[in-house]
Amino acid sequence: MFVAKDLTDYKILDAGKGKKLEDWKGVILSRPDPQVIWPVSSPKLWHKADAVYHRSDKGGGEWEYFSNIPERWVFSYKGIRMYVKPTGFKHTGIFPEQSANWDWMRNKIRGSNKENIKVLNLFAYTGGASLACLSAGASVVHVDSAHSMTAWFKENLALSEMEKRPIRYIVEDCVKFVLREQRRGNVYDGIIMDPPSYGRGKSGEVWKMEKDIYNLVSECSKLLSKNPLFFLINSYTTGLSNVVMDNMIMKTIIPKYKGKVKGDTLCLPIENSKTYLPCGTASRWER
After folding, report:
1. Exposure pattern of 51-87 as b/e (b: 16+ CB <10 Å)?
2. What pLDDT band is residue 198 in, cutting at 50, 70 and 90?
3. Which domain holds residue 276?
4. Adjacency order of strands within the sheet including 51-55
5. Is 139 inside a domain boundary?
6. How do residues 79-93 score in pLDDT, each as one tens digit?
7. Strand (E) or helix (H) holding 129
8. Is this model's pTM higher than 0.90 or not?
9. Are strands 190-193 and 27-32 parallel, antiparallel or unpaired?
10. What dihedral angle (degrees, nearest 10) is formed by the CA atoms of 252, 258, 259, 265?
11. What is the CATH number of the domain that holds 116?
């Protein structure tokens, strides 16, 4: 397991019956999680929820509020500061389990003797990985097709006081951007991707994980520098195990760069128990 161990502004208080009860720096949220198929451990804890997200049978859902919580508030992690905000599609703008990857990437950057390390972050969302790499001293190109998520990232960038760091944020279809970077001859020392199961680009481009991910990994491998540091694929797509992602790296990156790949499940510890909540997978390649 890749376990997020050092979180101070987030913890899972309990999980059961298809839901997780989260403490976001004192704000208690209850959100659905289909992998939680066991009973709750502490039923009384759930009465402390400030807000509960209810799924709709027609898709999407809505929040039910039981207290007057802020519209948004700040989550901090080792120098990274990001806004937390409950959205209409259940998410809050942050995936805390990714802190395990943030630490890994920062260690790779800080432990390298390379200068001017360049990192490409695809499907970059609100920018946790971008901020982590910036904080370690890398320059980052942050790419996402959604204007709203890029605007959220810019706010997180300012909140973390990193606006003057070497960062480019681009609203673009990720596949198109990768192909354009090939034509420009640009290369990167680290590449991160966190693709959705299904999505559409700003010009209506359709993305389907099972159909398109191998081609993207293959094309991204052509953007690696002569002596790259890391390559990371995250996946929240049910049915695609980390072994699938590992195999793609074995076929596209290992033949040229050697190194090693390790994939596993990203996990969050559940308070007062010896159990963990699985939160997608990550496959990590390093030199």
Report:
1. bbbeeeeeeebebeeeeebeeeeebebeebbbbbbbe
2. confident
3. 93-286
4. 10-16, 19-24, 27-32, 51-55, 61-65
5. yes
6. 999 999 999 889 999
7. helix 128-135
8. yes
9. unpaired
10. 30
11. 3.40.50.150
